[in-house]
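Exercise (ungraded).
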Amino acid sequence: MGRLRAKGKAGAAKAYVTRTSAIKKLQCSLADFRRLCILKGIFPREPRSRKRANKGSSAPTSFYYAKDIAYLAHEPVLKKLREHKAFAKKLSRALGRGEWSDAKNLEDNKPVYRIDHIIKERYPTFIDAVRDIDDALCMVFLFASLPSNARLPPSLIENCSRLAAEWQLYVMHTRALRKTFLSIKGIYYQAEVMDQTVTWLVPYQFTQSIPADVDVRVMLTFLELYQTLLGFVFFKLYTDCSLVYPPPLDVKKDEGGAGVGAFSLQNASQPAPAVAPKPQAVEIDGRKISGKDVRQAIKTMTGADSEINGDVDMQTAESNPMEVDEEFVPQQSTSDPQSTSSLTTLKALTALPQSLTTSLFSPYTLYLSRETPRSIFEFIVRSFGGRIGWPASSGSGSPIDESDESITHVIIDRPLVERTDETPEERERRSRRKYVQPQWVVDCINAGKILLEEPYAQGHTLPPHLSPFGEYEGAYDPTVGLTGQTAEESESEDEDVVLPDEEEAEDGEQVAEKSALRAAAAANDTASLRAAELAAEVAGVDYGTFEKEVRKSRKKSKAPAKDDAEEGEQDMNKMMMSNKQKKLYERMKYSEKKKASERATLAGKKQQLEKQKKRESKAG
Amino acid sequence: MAALPRSKKRKQSSEDVVAAVEAPAFSAPVQSLEMLSDDEGPEETASDDGQVDEFPEIDGASDSEEEALGDDEDEEDEDEETDKEDFEEADSDDSLDRDIFPKPKTIISDITGQPKRVYPEIEPDYDSDSSTEDTQNRVGDVPMHWYDDLPHVGYDMDGKKVLRPARGDELDKFLSTVEDPSAWTSAFDKTAQMDRPLSAEELDIIRRLYANEVPDAGYNPYEPMTEWFTGKGKEEIMPLSAAPEPKRRWVPSKWEKQKVMKIVRAIRQGRIISSKPKTASKLDFYSIWSEPSTSHAPPLPAPKPRLPTNSESYNPPEEYLPSEAERAEWEALDPEDRERDYLPTKHSALRLVPAYDRFIKERFSRQLDLYLAPRIQRVKLNIDPSTLIPKLPSPQSLKPFPNYKSLKFTHSSRARCISISPDGAWVISGDEGGVVSLWEVNVGREVKRWKFEGKIGALEWCPRLDVSYFVVGVEETLHFVIPPNVPSSIFLLTQSLLAPATLPPAPETPSPVKWVTPPTSSWSPDTAILTVHLPPSSGLPKQITWHRRGDYMASVSSGGTQGGVWMHQITRRHSQAPFKKIRGAVQLVLFHPLKPHFFVATQQYVRIYNLSEQKLLKTLTPGIKWISSMDVHPSGDHLIVGGYDRKLCWFDLELSDKPYKILRYHTRAIRSLAFHPTYPLFASSSDDGAIQVFHSRVYNDLMTDPLIVPLKILRGHTVKDGLGVLQVRWCARQPWLVSGGADGTVGLWCS
């Protein structure tokens, strides 16, 4: 007999701790524990036996690995959180006593935690970090579009929008964007960075409001982690491209609504032009600087550090506005007029190397109509090497004017309206340009080639927009039309549908014909087939229809007969499966059947729709 | 002493005052009236002033000693003044007196009969001290609850009772508040016990209190300050005291200096560090991945959310759009039960796509998933489900086995039991009506029919080939019957066996089982040649089973002691109960085909006894709730047990007490099981009306597991009253199966 073992000293009882006991062990509040879990990426585990892990109780609790909690106990952030608790106590006491200077002093020395070590710990290599930035990007893009309120300080929103712009700049610079999908939830983008596919979702540009049943604290904690993570990732990405991080922001452009264009990418090897021409820039401003101005400036400088940065950025941006554009948009010397047609006609172009598809729009210059969302299409078009312009109402910083001669496409999302007061010049311009709906741009990049503009022209009903990400294997494919066989079947079905109407008018001879055909359908062996053939001949059915009927009936009868025998055998063999296998088999069969039924319903619907369309076209 | 004469003088003057006060009481009222009318204006004010100033003066007589310390001259002046004023006052008091003391009338009281003075009613006019209040109740400042139980609330000035004013109920009160426009500015007067409208002054006071002002309207809190000691020309230039100014006023503090020096020293020594200059709290980013990482394995990356499919498009193909029914179904589901969290919608243009209202909610739920949901790493099975089905030889290669129904024999009621002769040519089948039919296997012709009293519980043909008879179990008896058309040699041998001329000696111990042979003269082929009477109240014999030699036979009855199991020896015409007592209700018994072993199936267990050693060998636990049937393989090493809970257990007796294989394929209870004596086949029948035929190959070496292959499901019996096929039996030499069903048919299934 082995050594006696006390209960709860080894195994699952030791390896798992409940959340309550974890909090007790860490001596922190639940909110702090939650924050730590979010930052450290610790999540509950499902023990194999809940009862064994919870000392015999089967109460619903969440379990954590005891080792995870032991690691948390040594976390510097936990120490800082405890310090913060003490600080909060001191501060509230000082405020209660009305000791304002003490309170201010305390506030100045507020404990602040850093989470860079956590980033390093969670993502030991850069690839790990890049693989995991999907959620971070989604959050940052979401918060960049939120209005600031008491819970969301403007600085947070600003930082989020800065990070979002930096990511877009990087993707545009490296031409990393691969796929885009306009969904009802927002716009999905997929980029390939460091051989990792990064997918993120950007909401449409509407004011979002945080619903009441969403815990903002949780979201903000995640956002805190994500901001830091993205900061480090972007730093590495930018420096690897030998760019300066953070890219300087042009405040004046930003205020003008330039969006991504307000940032300028700088090569790290070039000396930053911001520092040198400082006095010069002041002169360019064309203002005389009096002592008063200086004093005022000093006052503002002491007020906020950021304004200093803003000043500097403004000067840098002004010094090289054109360079920025050239960095992003390599100008194609000549756009081959033939290339368009060849691209659209050749289907084999889908298999082209990536390098060509990333510069898909490089021969074109696009112009955005004012109702199309600029941020989306500027990003997409510039990531694929195109030049793009927009009206001033969509924000400042458009590199081209509407009257620019080089514009080849106008992205327009308005219904077609006949204009009477068109000048000949405008008409001429209109005829030269192609007016397409926004979906054309997205479908082009998903297809990897320039599609024909005709179906996407202004005012046309758009072809369906499909997901570029694909579905599971064997899913219903909407692009595949009804195959020949099914088409034939449906045709014959159509005939069947029509037949009853004719039948009423037909006389007895026709009825005999029918019965002969039916006999043919029923005939199985050669003798009966022969008899049926004779009967058909007597009835006056021509040989072609007879053959067709026979073929159809054979197809129908043969396949199920064979299947039946096999299936019966299989069914019997299922008896010999163990219970576990049987359950697994049932599950797999269930999911298979579900997928098949899904596919069948979609195909059925499509068939129905097509029939309806045909009928309408016949009627119309 | 100046004080004494002064006090005397004072006394005197006070006496004067008294005299003066008293004097006018007797003066003519006419005169005083005149005086009043004469100097209304100046006199009035003077007298008022006099009154206000006067009273302290009069009272002050007692504390004059205090003031005596002051200057006497002043006092005397004042005295003179007071004297003067006293006179004046005396004049003015005349009028007062008249008001305070009105003349009483003397009347005869009609109650006492005594004369009594009645004063005239006081006209509360402007002069009267109670002019501001018109209250009648003069009860004073007493708690009003003293009057709670009384009809009056106090007394008026004349000592008359002031009756409690009528107060309506709450409804009246409410109505009065509605009707009376001044109701909201009236308050309950305790002394009058009624609501009184507040006066303008009172309302003003209330307003002031609300506005946090001084309640007194006449009080001016911002009166100009009278500067007594400051201001122009009033500066005090002379010091208040002659003490010299202390040094601390102009020498810096030594202690302060020490304290400062202490701090200075501490700063110099570095004990006090000045607060760091505020750095930008923003985290500056650096190349965090430039240093090599620790050896820790990175945590598993969180699973990525599923990528969007075509149905999520803003402009999906039309077939993706939900129909009305699908939409209603989606909306009826709880949000957590929905397969997709959105309904596909189609927008004709991008500009028409609205904001997605659950965007933040979905982001939030993703985060909850990230930090609250347990994660399990699952191996994704990417296999074809058909590979899970075991590969078994095709039934076509395992022929012969019964395939189709070739004959049908019909009973009038449920065909409960069947038996096939050991040569395989004859079938006897018994039904619940007590009819036993003998018919040929090949053609299904009924040869003979017997009728017994009550249900037929069991039928079994003796396995011996040199004799030919069968046993029929009916209510508490076993009948031994010789079939007709047997060869005479066999018939004679059978007759001598069952009804010998000389009976074997009776056993020593008397048995409750009686063996009765009817006299030879009365015997006919229609009756039993031998009858065994089981003990009374033992019930219907459920099962009869033969030992392979055909000498011993065991019967199981539904009731009775000793589990209802009886072992009968034909040659010795003797029966005995093998068990004195047995745990559980015995369902079935079986003889081992080769060894002297005996299988007993109780409700849940199968026990194996060694009959020669008289001991329990092992107990098998099939895990069946209620065993219904059992059969042993002809080799004796394998046993199949079926239960009413649809399970079939295959036991390898060499291997374990636990089943080697458990099969559950019938949809209803298993009724009967049978191994074929020569072919590798077994069959099971069930209440679902199906018979399942299996190939069961048993190998001689211990290493190879028995091969069980399902061959055929025979359907042909109809389910009646929830009962299907009640018994199946194999023909001894052919792969043919005979089955008896609850529908009264007995079927023969041929290959």
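Further reading is listed at the end of the chapter. For now, observe: The longest strand of chain A covers residues 187-193. Confidence is low (pLDDT under 50) at residues 271-291, 301-353, 482-508 of chain A.
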